[in-house]
Amino acid sequence: MDRLVAHGKVIVCRSEAEANAAQVRDWWHRFRDGQEAGMIAFSRAEIARLNLAARELMAQDGRLGRDALQVGEREFRVGDRIVCGRNARARLGVVNGTRGQVIALDPRQRSLTMRNDEGKTVMLPGWYVAGRGHDDQPWVDHGYAITGHKTQGLTGDDFGVRPTTRADAHWTYVAASRHRFDLRLYLVEEQERPAEDTRHTTDPLDDRVEATVRTMGRPGEQTFAIDQELLAEVRQLTMPQLRQERDRLRELRCRSP
C-alpha cells in the first residue's frame, strides 16, 4: 500500500458514484488505446453499474454493432466484451471466468460467437447464453468489469480494482496481482447512509478508507470461523433437506473455476 500510494496508484473518492466514474474513466482511456484493460470489484451490483457505464462509452464510440441479442435484462452486440459464468470445458471449451469479445450473433438461434482472450473462436449456443444458475445469475455476462472471484488465472495489461470492507487479504492479493504493467486501487471515503438515517454525528467506524485498508490485511481463514456452527446445523437437517443442499452445492461447484 505504501508503494502504491507513493506512485499515485491509490485513488480516494468521496462517494461510490465518484469512484465508479473515476474507475470507468481510467479504464476507458487505456482500453480505447488498445491495452488489455479491465475493472475488478467485489459485488455483483457494483459490477453491473461499471459494465453499464462501460457499454455506454463503447456505444458512443461506435464500437458496438447495430443488431442486438436481448437475454433477460442484458443486451449483447458485436464488439461487446463478455465473460462466461459456467464450466463447459468438454462441450464448448469454456470455463467460469473465460473472457472474450463477441464477433457474431444469431438472433434466431439466440447464440453468440466469441473470440476468447487466447484468440480461439467459440460459439456459445442458445442454451448456454440463456442459462441461469440457482441464484438466477446468467451464464454469460458483460465482461468489462468482473468480480475478484472470476480473476483466478486472469492476466492483463492494466486493472483498476475496487477493494471493499468485505474483502480479505486473499481476495485483495488475487485481484491486485492480475496486471502486467499498471494497477490502481479506488477507495471510497464516505459511508453511504440510508435515506432514513437522520443522525448528524460521524461515527469513527465510518472511515471507509481506514477500514478498507485494514480488512485488506485480514486473513481469509477468519471467514470460516463459523464452520463448527454450520456443522451443527447440518446434523439437524432431514434427508430431503440434505439432498436439496447437496444439489445446491453441486450447482455452485459447476459454476466455480
Could you characterize the architecture of this molecule?
This protein has 257 residues and is of the alpha/beta class. The chain has 2 domains: 2-188, 3-Layer(aba) Sandwich (Rossmann fold); 226-257. It has helices spanning 2-6, 16-31, 44-60, 126-129, 169-175, 208-215, 227-235, 239-254, and strands spanning 10-13, 37-41, 68-71, 74-77, 81-84, 99-106, 111-116, 121-124, 140-142, 145-147, 156-161, 179-188. It is globular. Mean pLDDT is 86; it is low at 197-206.
Name the features.
257 residues, Rossmann fold, 2 domains, 5-stranded parallel beta sheet, 5-stranded antiparallel beta sheet
Shape: globular
* Count of strand segments: 12
Helix content: 25-40%
Mean pLDDT: 86
Strand content: 15-25%
Strand order of the largest sheet: 1-12-11-2-10
| The CATH architecture of the largest domain | 3-Layer(aba) Sandwich
Unreliable sequence segments: 197-206
Question: Termini, distance in Å?
Answer: 28 Å
Instruction: Kindly give the count of domains.
Output: 2
List the helices and strands and how they pair.
Layout: H1 2-6, E1 10-13, H2 16-31, E2 37-41, H3 44-60, E3 68-71, E4 74-77, E5 81-84, E6 99-106, E7 111-116, E8 121-124, H4 126-129, E9 140-142, E10 145-147, E11 156-161, H5 169-175, E12 179-188, H6 208-215, H7 227-235, H8 239-254
Parallel strand pairs: 1-12, 2-10, 2-11, 11-12
Antiparallel strand pairs: 3-4, 5-6, 5-9, 6-7, 7-8
